[in-house]
Amino acid sequence: MARAVGALRDVDVTGWIGLGYSAGGTALWRAVQQGAPLSHLFCVSSTRLRSEGPIAIPHRVFFGAEDPARPNDAWVRQVPKRATVFDGAAHDYYLDTASRAVRETERRILSDLSDPSTLPNHAK
To answer: Which InterPro entries does this one have (predicted)?
Structure first.
């Protein structure tokens, strides 16, 4: 994980959007904590985020309510700026591309990216 975080942190990703699933989302989150200049970050079923603190860029996390490893409700309320927890969905809900949870994940990502309040200051 440390090697992946370091590599992500050191790549010129200015203005890029991060989308990470499971451990990939955690690696991107940590890279942002260490200065990776992503414009937005979306983490899907990144349960290891339960040990992470906040980040400053626009972001949203997604979890299935039936995922036993997801962060607890206090973390979901306090750490991420935006969070979505899908009732009846498991950790791997994203594998069923026809599911309501996947369609809603896609919709919310697109909505967040088109919301001017989530744009970095230099892009407004």
So the answer is: AB_hydrolase_fold (IPR029058)
Segment 71-120, tens digit of pLDDT: 999 999 999 999 999 999 999 999 999 999 999 999 999 999 998 776 55
Of 78, 20, 73, 29, which Cα lies nearest the Cα of 49? 29
Please check whether residue 16 lies inside any domain of the structure: yes
**99 contact partners, CB below 8 Å, separation of at least 6:** 89, 93
Pull the structure tokens for residue 116. Answer: 């001017």
Say if 10 falls within a structural domain: yes
At a CB cut-off of 8 Å and minimum separation 6, what does 24 contact? 46
> Is residue 93 in some structural domain?
yes
Q: Distance of CA 81 to CAs 56, 78, 112, Å?
A: 9, 8, 11
**Residue in this structure with the two tokens 């440390």, named with its chain if needed:** 2
Is residue 111 domain-resident?
Answer: yes
pLDDT digits (tens, 9 = 90+) for 27-65: 999 999 999 999 999 999 999 999 999 999 999 999 999
pTM: 0.91
Contact 46, 24 (CB under 8 A): yes
